[in-house]
Each structure stands twice: as C-alpha cells, then as structure tokens.
Amino acid sequence: MKRVLVYIDEDAVADSLDLLEVGRLMYGAQGFRSYALAAGGRYGEAGRLFDYVFRVKNGPLPNYDSAAIARCIETLHQVHHFDAIIFPATHCGRMIAPRAALRLHAGLVADVTGIETDGDEVWMVRPAFNGRMLAVVGCRGGGPTMMSVRRRVFTYGEPVFKSAGIIEVDGQDLQTPGLRLMERREKSVTRDIRESKVLISGGGGIARDFRLLDRLAEALHGMVAASRRVVDLGIAPREIQVGQSGKMASPRLYIALGISGSAQHVAGIRNAEYIISVNKNKQAPICSISDIVLEGDARAFVEGLLNRIETSKIRTYGR
Amino acid sequence: MLKLVPDVDQLQYDCQRNILIRENMRLMLNPEDVTAMAAALELKREIPETTLESVSMAPRAAMPHLEDLVRRGIDQAALISDPHYAGSDTWATSRVLARYLGTRDFDCIFCGTRSLDGGTGQVPAQLAEALGLPLMVGVSTLVQLSPQARQAVVDVDGEAATLRFSVPLPAVLGFQYNSTCMLPYIRLQDLNRDVSSLITVLGNDQIGMDEAELGLKGSRTQVRSLKADALVDKDPLLLQVDQDGIEKVYQWLAQKGFLQP
Description:
A: 26% helix, B: alpha/beta, 14 strands
C-alpha cells in the first residue's frame, strides 16, 4: 500500500482536497493510504476523505511560514515514509514544496497538469517554456515523488468516504521568529471569469479599444477577459487574465479579439465549448482551435456586431 | 540573483527530432529578475551606501549582459560558470548558488519569483532552505527594507487579497513581474566603461562541489520528453470582418442561443 501526503493550504482547502485525485491516478483508488497535513488548522472535509489528518499542536503553522512547514513535513516523513507528497500550486504551496524537497533530498516537479503511469513508474506532465511545451518529468533517487499541482486541473470526482484518524504533531519551536502577516486587504469581490458562460477576451490587437469589450460582454451576458499582454500593459487587471499564468477558463463561448494565442493562452481556454477568434493573421495559433475565424480588425468586428445586435433589437421592439 | 533565459518568443522546436533548437538561441535577462534588479537599484538610490552584487549561474555567453548591468549601477557581478553545471535541475542549482552565497555577507537576496523558461519558481525557495533563510515570493511592492531593524516589509498580490508581510532579514525575496519596473539607462560616459574588474567568474574549482552532485548526474528530476503542446485542429469556418462575416456570426450566435434578451 502506497502512502500519499497532501498538504492542505488553509487558503485553498477545496483545491487541496481535490489532490486526492492525483493519488488515485498514480496508484489507483485502493492503492494508497491518504494523509492530510492541516498545518494551518482549516481542513474542510478532509476528515471524511482522508485516512489520516495531521493537526499541529501548540497553535497552527500559517501557510506562509514555509520554513516551518517544510521542517514539519520532514519530521512526518521520517516516521511515515511517504511514497508521494503533493502540494497545491498556491502562493504558499509553491514556497513550501521546494523547501521540503530540499530537506528530503527529493526531486520536485512544479505545476503539474497531468499524470502518466508506465507500470510502477510515475511521470508528471507540466508546462514549460512559458507554456509552449509540455515536459514529462520523473523523480529520481530514493526520496518520495514530490509535486506541486496546478489548481483546478484535477477534480476528485468519485470520493471514497472515510473517517480519518486525527494525529497531533508537535509544532513547538518550528515557527520562524519575526515572520508575520501584518495586514490582509481583501480585494473587492468581483465575479470570477471562471464562472461566466461567455467570455469576451482581448489581446494586443485591441488593447487601445479595450473598453469596447464591456459593451459586447454586456450584449452577450458575459464577462471581459484579457491576454497576458494586455495585463502587462496595465490595461486590464490580473484577475481577468486567461492562460496558464492567469486563469483556466471553460466557458461555453470564448470570443478572442486581437489575441494571437500563445500556447500558454490557448492552454487556458482549451476546454471552451466554442471559440470565435478575430485576428488580422488567420494563421495565428488561436485560429487552429477556433470554430469560427474572422480575418480582420477586431475593433471593426466588435463595432459591427454591436450594431447588428442593436439593429435587431430595434426591429424586434420597434424602439 | 539573475537568470539568463532563452528568449521564448524566438523558441524553435524540431518536431521531427523532438528537441529544442538551442543553436543561436538568444539569451535575455529573466523578466522577473529584472523587476528585482530594478527594485534593488531603486533601494540604492534611496540608501546610497547600499552595495549591490548580482549573482548568476550561466554560460560564459552571459558576460555582456552582466557588463551591461554593472554599467547600469550594480557594484559587482559574479558569474558562476562551469561545464559541469550544465543540465543541473533546481536541486543541484540551488546547492551551487548556496555554496557561493554562503561565503558572502549580505542583508537580503532579491530575485524573480519565477523564470520564463523552466518556470518552476523552485530555486529561490531551495536557496532559502539551503541557506536557512526566511522566504517570501510574489512580492509586488517592497514597502520598506531596513538592515538596521533587520526587517523588510513587503506586499504580496494574492489572488483574493493583498497581503502585507514583515520578513526578518537576511531573507530571500522573490519579486513578481512588473512591467513598469525598468532598469535605468546607461549614462553616456559609462557606455564603453571597462567593467571587467568588477565581474568575478567562478568555476567549480572555486565553488568546490562534488561532481556527483552536479549537472544531470546530480539532478533529482529527469525530463523524459519535451513535446509541443498537442492541440486538436478544429478546421474552423473562415470569414472576413465585413458585413457578411458579421451577419454570419450574428446568425450563429442566435442559433446557439447566445443572443437571448
């Protein structure tokens, strides 16, 4: 029986629990015993999904104290000898995982988006070169297989319900003195682009007229999204960036305006049901995954389509 | 800390042989490292007695980039370069960097959160671990850095919130890319300044790592294959942006039910 440890990030509990799916893909539903490290105190449904939950005595270890949690994982590994240790690729997960891997002399694969198995061998798939390539990587040496997993790529769809044994671990003397969270300013709650059925997305080709997208989004009951280029130019906020360094979206309809479609961007929308792209270059990478390609100026398209929608309303309602 | 990365926009891939074409590949400074460097130079403007050293593990071809940085205001640069280091993964790389930095006296290490090529973001964290230092990545703003108080205050732009942390020094700080942070121009009189004496090149003779811990041999991960991301071609309907094209899109949207009032 394999042993799999999952780090539960208290700021991304649901995404952390989904990492059980990675264990299942590696070893089969019955092939592993699951352990959750709930160092931050919050662990949601882990008590019903894992075989064991580790809780920290003497106060929680916050997720940002990567040194403390890495030491805690090392101690746990010395006792439980995990075959795999999995982290959500959150801001803190990304800090903890490499530190823990160094302590355990183990290889670590970051930002995993796929699992391949070949007999007993486990290979991890991750984007590389800014998403232009996919690398298939394995861990070598005697240590556990370690990885951070991109959020929302895996869903633990067929959960096996359990009643976890709670194991208390000693957190004393682990905290980094002087490292503290001084202030947390929540961002204004806006609708998440991942929840929208229709996304109107703009890239470099429409950066100057980006505000036009709002009108089209309104007309089609959707939301506005952006490519990395537009975000880097400071025209759109990072929250609406689509792509591997932004958000992975799977709307019913994705309209890509003036976006050439870096592999990274394309990877972020590959699950969209329909894609319409408007581009001056009909050979742009995004066109190959589109249902409809319009060659030409994105601004002219938006204005034309808005006009057409307006006209039909006038016809229908006789304004 | 500065990484030289291949310019990914120029990346060429040999699909027949399943390899990257590395010949004539142009190197560039990793964009997030440039943000970190710009923050360091800004700090030096505020606190003039600050000294800045850049550290890179790179091939010798990185030399012109480092000379350029010294001309922009970095006090000295170290280039860690040895054929044995080629192919090192983050585990091996961090240990080499830590071996060198362990001999240096510093208040803070600035770097980018991630590199453009590998993009794992593991080296800053593993370097921090190897040196036993606190770490904070994803830094969007350096609010304050006080070597006297042995404390840095940084803002991190998280997904749901902006977080302000106090980090005890010395520490490793990883910056997030910020397109508005740019390196200063080189002053005209510095354009051709001989800066070679300010750049130290170190090989493994100086660093002294065991060869078994280096390169591919010393790596704890192994790349099995690298493939261009396979996508299904959809064979799209091709239209022009004109009245006819827009009409067809309009009808299509209506038919699929996207034009509900």
